Give the backbone structure.
Amino acid sequence: MKAILAGAALVLLAGMPEASLARDDDAAATAVTIEAGKPGAKIDRHIFGQFAEHLGTGIYGGIWVGRDSPIPNVRGIRSDVVAALKAIKVPDVRWPGGCFADEYHWKNGVGPKRRSTVNANWGGAIEPDTFGTDEFMDFAHQVGTEAYVSVNVGSGTLEEASDWLAYMTADQRSSAGADRAANGHAEPYNVEFLGLGNESWGCGGNMRPQYYTDLMKRFARFTRNYNPAQQKEAMQRIAVGPTDDDASYTEAVMEAWSKRDWSWSIEGLSFHSYTVPKWPPSLASSGFGEGDYATILATTLKMEERIAQHSAIMNKYDPDKKVALVVDEWGVWYAENPGTPTGFLQQHNSMRDAIVAALNFNIFARHADRVRMANIAQMVNVLQAMILTDGPKMVLTPTYYVHQLYLPFQDATLIPVQFDAGAYEHGDIVLPRVDAVAARATDGRLYLSLVNLDPAHSATVRVNLPEGGIKTATGQVLTAPNVNSVNTFDAPRTVVPAPIAGKVAGGTVTIVLPGKSVAMIALGR
Ligand code: AHR
């Protein structure tokens, strides 16, 4: 094996420590066959969506600093965060929650006089309501992303939700549209996605599935989008659905949908599933060892069977796959960082989390026919964040860089791959050693995402197309000195992508993936 590696593989790993290029003596090469002639479903760019809740410093400090802040901003929205998000082409942002959404009263957050409230879900913080509907829409506009607004089904009224839609989308000749125009935005906003409640089985009101379903039908009917530009490209309504492997909402909502008449419908079913081995979350997000690393990866891989389980139920009621499964809350949830305010859900973000993100993206891509949207929790400073801020400082996390690596997968076409994943074992935990997904990007190029879960050993991957003819294999790889390596404000470039290239011989490519790595390779012919 040593001889094959030495002779066949070339890896360019700029700035990567020697240890990452570690010995590979006993590693068997993984053969990956890409069936480029059998294109599958479109990998909807919305699987790379994000979630921003009024929680901790996710909004205040993380996005909103106010117009008078010394931190560079445009109309109160921090410019460094906007630039970072633009660079990864965030397709949509879910807002304002989360549990917060079912206690949010939108009128407190519009116009010149804001009414502050208490954020009872998240540490009892005072919610100043200075970041409201118009500020969120401005933020979405600055980032160049689509709006996914969740209405309050738990503690709000149907009238309040319907008025909110009118405020956002009605013509300015109507009173609701005139109010919006008076607040600075004459044109109706686009509301591309509408959440009909959040976790109505839990923090959103603890409703029986049937009770929620009946209520949801009324919200689906009367939360109208009046924006003329959205009559053809209609707003997608997303009902509350399952959590983890509890399928009671999947059954109730999908059965009701299968019996719908002309008067209501939904286009998506929400699914929440966090990577947490046991509630309440207790594992540390930094300074952990290989045991916790393997436990978290084993937990996150449950996403595959959970999606399969809920998809099978949806197939029963919706064989044409009209309703999308929308994984609009996912990600790792650890113990809060010691010394941070309770309820702010602040955690570190390490190389382990980058692997988690890549494995989940690969799972969503493999289920691209049903999973057409997903929103990582959460965007800035909360849970598995892409960005961390501290006053004027900002750092991009390893999870941010996975979003960057996967840019070619946005709206790409899934291409089947055949491979033997092998095994990475730690104690009783047995995991696949390698994961792979291929896709044809919108630019026509073929891309292969590869993950090496083994923290200590590189993995040799031999890629071929049945029709042969690969001439180049170049891309980017993300790895780190340790699975618990993080980027900090003082050392922001510990975990950043570096170039990688495969060695091409006779139409076949050999790539050496460092231990604990995520790679995105463009295959040229
Ligand atoms: O993301 C944090 C919380 O997790 C959300 O508010 C809620 O929907 C979920 O339980």
In short: The pocket of alpha-L-arabinofuranose is lined by residues 53, 97-99, 198-199, 203, 329, 377-378, 383 (CB under 6 Å). The first strand starts at residue 30 and ends at 34.
